[in-house]
Amino acid sequence: MKQYKAIFIDWDDTIGDFINAAHCSLQDMFTNHQLDVHFLDFQTFYNIYHTHNISLWERYGRDEVTKAYLSFDRFFYPLMMAPVPYSLADAIALAPVLGAEHLEHTTTYFRLLPDAEEVVRKLAERYPLTIVSNGFIEVQYRKVELSGLRDCFQHIVLSEEVGAQKPNPKIYEEALRLNGCQPEEVLMIGDSWTSDIQGAINAGIDQLWVQSGIVKDPNLPATYKVARLRDVLPLLL
Known about the structure:
6 strands, 51% helix
Protein backbone atom coordinates (compact mmCIF):
# COMPACT_ATOMS: atom_id res chain seq x y z
CA MET A 1 0.00 0.00 0.00
CA LYS A 2 1.26 3.46 -0.85
CA GLN A 3 2.01 6.00 1.86
CA TYR A 4 -0.72 8.49 2.73
CA LYS A 5 -0.44 11.86 4.47
CA ALA A 6 -3.91 11.76 6.04
CA ILE A 7 -6.86 9.44 6.58
CA PHE A 8 -10.53 10.35 6.16
CA ILE A 9 -13.02 8.04 7.89
CA ASP A 10 -16.78 7.67 8.02
CA TRP A 11 -18.52 7.56 11.41
CA ASP A 12 -21.88 5.73 11.44
CA ASP A 13 -21.49 1.97 10.94
CA THR A 14 -17.76 2.33 10.30
CA ILE A 15 -16.74 3.44 13.81
CA GLY A 16 -20.06 3.77 15.64
CA ASP A 17 -22.74 1.07 15.75
CA PHE A 18 -25.60 3.13 14.37
CA ILE A 19 -27.62 0.14 13.12
CA ASN A 20 -28.03 -1.33 16.60
CA ALA A 21 -28.67 2.08 18.19
CA ALA A 22 -31.37 2.82 15.62
CA HIS A 23 -32.97 -0.58 16.12
CA CYS A 24 -33.15 -0.09 19.90
CA SER A 25 -34.56 3.40 19.43
CA LEU A 26 -37.29 2.18 17.11
CA GLN A 27 -38.22 -0.61 19.50
CA ASP A 28 -38.60 1.91 22.32
CA MET A 29 -40.83 4.16 20.24
CA PHE A 30 -42.90 1.24 19.00
CA THR A 31 -43.70 0.35 22.61
CA ASN A 32 -44.00 3.83 24.09
CA HIS A 33 -46.32 5.14 21.37
CA GLN A 34 -48.36 1.92 21.17
CA LEU A 35 -47.70 1.48 17.47
CA ASP A 36 -48.82 -2.14 17.83
CA VAL A 37 -52.39 -0.85 17.48
CA HIS A 38 -51.60 -0.07 13.84
CA PHE A 39 -48.87 -2.59 12.96
CA LEU A 40 -49.01 -6.38 13.23
CA ASP A 41 -45.75 -6.41 15.16
CA PHE A 42 -42.48 -4.51 15.50
CA GLN A 43 -40.90 -6.27 12.51
CA THR A 44 -43.70 -5.09 10.23
CA PHE A 45 -43.12 -1.51 11.33
CA TYR A 46 -39.35 -1.86 11.09
CA ASN A 47 -39.41 -3.31 7.58
CA ILE A 48 -41.52 -0.46 6.22
CA TYR A 49 -39.45 2.17 8.03
CA HIS A 50 -36.04 0.68 7.17
CA THR A 51 -36.65 0.29 3.43
CA HIS A 52 -38.04 3.81 3.13
CA ASN A 53 -35.31 5.33 5.31
CA ILE A 54 -32.54 3.85 3.15
CA SER A 55 -34.20 5.31 0.06
CA LEU A 56 -34.49 8.72 1.71
CA TRP A 57 -30.82 8.77 2.74
CA GLU A 58 -29.78 7.88 -0.81
CA ARG A 59 -31.91 10.75 -2.10
CA TYR A 60 -30.48 13.03 0.59
CA GLY A 61 -26.98 12.13 -0.62
CA ARG A 62 -27.99 13.20 -4.13
CA ASP A 63 -29.43 16.48 -2.80
CA GLU A 64 -32.92 15.46 -3.91
CA VAL A 65 -34.51 15.96 -0.47
CA THR A 66 -33.76 18.25 2.46
CA LYS A 67 -32.85 17.26 6.01
CA ALA A 68 -36.28 18.46 7.18
CA TYR A 69 -38.05 16.33 4.58
CA LEU A 70 -36.01 13.24 5.47
CA SER A 71 -36.55 13.71 9.21
CA PHE A 72 -40.32 14.01 8.77
CA ASP A 73 -41.06 11.58 5.95
CA ARG A 74 -39.10 8.61 7.28
CA PHE A 75 -41.78 8.32 9.99
CA PHE A 76 -44.77 9.87 8.21
CA TYR A 77 -44.59 7.32 5.39
CA PRO A 78 -44.65 4.19 7.65
CA LEU A 79 -47.55 5.65 9.67
CA MET A 80 -49.56 6.08 6.49
CA MET A 81 -48.52 2.65 5.15
CA ALA A 82 -49.39 0.77 8.33
CA PRO A 83 -51.77 -2.21 8.00
CA VAL A 84 -54.17 -0.05 10.01
CA PRO A 85 -53.17 3.40 8.69
CA TYR A 86 -53.12 6.50 10.86
CA SER A 87 -55.35 9.37 9.86
CA LEU A 88 -53.56 12.08 7.92
CA ALA A 89 -53.85 14.51 10.83
CA ASP A 90 -52.53 11.99 13.37
CA ALA A 91 -49.62 11.00 11.11
CA ILE A 92 -48.68 14.65 10.55
CA ALA A 93 -48.72 15.24 14.31
CA LEU A 94 -46.84 12.09 15.34
CA ALA A 95 -44.11 11.97 12.68
CA PRO A 96 -42.05 14.94 13.98
CA VAL A 97 -42.38 13.65 17.55
CA LEU A 98 -40.93 10.30 16.50
CA GLY A 99 -38.22 12.04 14.50
CA ALA A 100 -37.04 14.10 17.47
CA GLU A 101 -37.14 11.12 19.83
CA HIS A 102 -35.20 8.98 17.36
CA LEU A 103 -32.30 11.43 17.27
CA GLU A 104 -32.20 11.48 21.06
CA HIS A 105 -32.50 7.71 21.48
CA THR A 106 -29.84 6.85 18.90
CA THR A 107 -27.43 9.01 20.86
CA THR A 108 -28.43 7.33 24.13
CA TYR A 109 -27.92 3.86 22.67
CA PHE A 110 -24.70 4.77 20.86
CA ARG A 111 -21.79 2.33 21.18
CA LEU A 112 -18.54 1.90 19.31
CA LEU A 113 -18.24 -1.04 16.96
CA PRO A 114 -15.90 -3.88 17.99
CA ASP A 115 -12.23 -2.95 17.50
CA ALA A 116 -13.11 0.67 16.66
CA GLU A 117 -11.26 2.22 19.60
CA GLU A 118 -8.10 0.21 18.98
CA VAL A 119 -8.13 0.92 15.25
CA VAL A 120 -8.75 4.65 15.62
CA ARG A 121 -6.13 5.13 18.32
CA LYS A 122 -3.47 3.22 16.41
CA LEU A 123 -4.19 5.07 13.19
CA ALA A 124 -4.11 8.40 15.05
CA GLU A 125 -0.57 7.67 16.19
CA ARG A 126 0.57 7.69 12.57
CA TYR A 127 -1.87 9.79 10.55
CA PRO A 128 -3.96 12.95 10.92
CA LEU A 129 -7.55 11.65 11.05
CA THR A 130 -10.65 13.45 9.80
CA ILE A 131 -14.26 12.32 10.21
CA VAL A 132 -16.28 12.80 7.02
CA SER A 133 -19.96 12.15 7.75
CA ASN A 134 -23.45 12.80 6.40
CA GLY A 135 -24.89 12.60 9.93
CA PHE A 136 -26.85 15.46 11.45
CA ILE A 137 -24.97 18.10 13.45
CA GLU A 138 -27.07 17.79 16.60
CA VAL A 139 -26.14 14.14 17.10
CA GLN A 140 -22.78 13.55 15.42
CA TYR A 141 -20.73 15.85 17.66
CA ARG A 142 -22.39 14.35 20.74
CA LYS A 143 -21.61 10.80 19.61
CA VAL A 144 -17.98 11.67 18.93
CA GLU A 145 -17.66 13.15 22.40
CA LEU A 146 -19.39 10.15 23.99
CA SER A 147 -17.03 7.79 22.17
CA GLY A 148 -13.99 9.03 24.09
CA LEU A 149 -12.12 9.34 20.78
CA ARG A 150 -12.47 13.08 20.12
CA ASP A 151 -8.75 13.61 20.78
CA CYS A 152 -7.90 11.27 17.89
CA PHE A 153 -9.45 13.48 15.21
CA GLN A 154 -7.92 16.68 13.94
CA HIS A 155 -11.05 17.62 11.99
CA ILE A 156 -14.75 16.73 11.80
CA VAL A 157 -16.39 17.49 8.46
CA LEU A 158 -20.19 17.15 8.42
CA SER A 159 -22.30 17.42 5.29
CA GLU A 160 -24.79 19.74 6.96
CA GLU A 161 -22.04 22.28 7.68
CA VAL A 162 -20.45 21.98 4.24
CA GLY A 163 -23.75 22.07 2.37
CA ALA A 164 -23.03 18.89 0.42
CA GLN A 165 -23.56 15.22 1.26
CA LYS A 166 -21.46 12.25 0.31
CA PRO A 167 -21.07 11.18 -2.50
CA ASN A 168 -20.82 14.84 -3.59
CA PRO A 169 -17.08 15.55 -3.92
CA LYS A 170 -17.50 18.97 -2.26
CA ILE A 171 -17.49 17.45 1.23
CA TYR A 172 -14.19 15.71 0.45
CA GLU A 173 -12.79 18.91 -1.01
CA GLU A 174 -13.45 20.64 2.32
CA ALA A 175 -11.65 17.84 4.17
CA LEU A 176 -8.72 18.15 1.76
CA ARG A 177 -8.58 21.91 2.33
CA LEU A 178 -8.50 21.51 6.11
CA ASN A 179 -5.68 18.97 5.87
CA GLY A 180 -3.71 20.86 3.23
CA CYS A 181 -3.58 17.72 1.07
CA GLN A 182 -4.10 16.74 -2.55
CA PRO A 183 -6.57 13.94 -3.42
CA GLU A 184 -3.80 11.44 -4.16
CA GLU A 185 -2.31 11.97 -0.69
CA VAL A 186 -5.26 10.73 1.38
CA LEU A 187 -7.34 7.58 1.88
CA MET A 188 -11.08 7.35 2.68
CA ILE A 189 -12.28 4.52 4.94
CA GLY A 190 -15.98 3.68 5.04
CA ASP A 191 -18.65 0.99 5.08
CA SER A 192 -21.05 2.40 2.47
CA TRP A 193 -20.14 2.02 -1.18
CA THR A 194 -22.86 4.46 -2.26
CA SER A 195 -21.70 7.37 -0.10
CA ASP A 196 -18.17 6.68 1.20
CA ILE A 197 -16.57 4.82 -1.68
CA GLN A 198 -18.41 6.40 -4.60
CA GLY A 199 -17.89 9.82 -3.01
CA ALA A 200 -14.15 9.28 -2.67
CA ILE A 201 -13.99 8.05 -6.26
CA ASN A 202 -15.80 11.21 -7.36
CA ALA A 203 -13.18 13.29 -5.53
CA GLY A 204 -10.19 11.35 -6.94
CA ILE A 205 -9.37 9.87 -3.51
CA ASP A 206 -8.29 6.28 -2.84
CA GLN A 207 -10.84 4.21 -0.93
CA LEU A 208 -10.77 1.44 1.67
CA TRP A 209 -14.12 -0.32 1.78
CA VAL A 210 -14.97 -2.06 5.08
CA GLN A 211 -17.48 -4.73 4.08
CA SER A 212 -18.50 -5.75 7.59
CA GLY A 213 -22.22 -5.10 7.20
CA ILE A 214 -24.80 -6.17 4.63
CA VAL A 215 -23.21 -5.68 1.20
CA LYS A 216 -25.46 -6.15 -1.82
CA ASP A 217 -22.63 -6.27 -4.36
CA PRO A 218 -19.16 -6.87 -2.83
CA ASN A 219 -17.60 -6.75 -6.31
CA LEU A 220 -18.19 -3.03 -6.78
CA PRO A 221 -14.87 -1.22 -7.34
CA ALA A 222 -12.71 0.12 -4.50
CA THR A 223 -8.97 0.69 -4.16
CA TYR A 224 -8.87 -1.69 -1.17
CA LYS A 225 -11.45 -3.97 0.47
CA VAL A 226 -11.43 -5.58 3.92
CA ALA A 227 -13.93 -7.80 5.74
CA ARG A 228 -13.57 -6.18 9.19
CA LEU A 229 -12.51 -2.81 10.54
CA ARG A 230 -9.49 -4.27 12.32
CA ASP A 231 -8.19 -5.53 8.97
CA VAL A 232 -7.20 -1.97 8.04
CA LEU A 233 -4.35 -2.03 10.57
CA PRO A 234 -2.02 -4.44 8.72
CA LEU A 235 -2.50 -2.38 5.60
CA LEU A 236 -1.85 1.05 7.08
CA LEU A 237 0.65 0.47 9.89
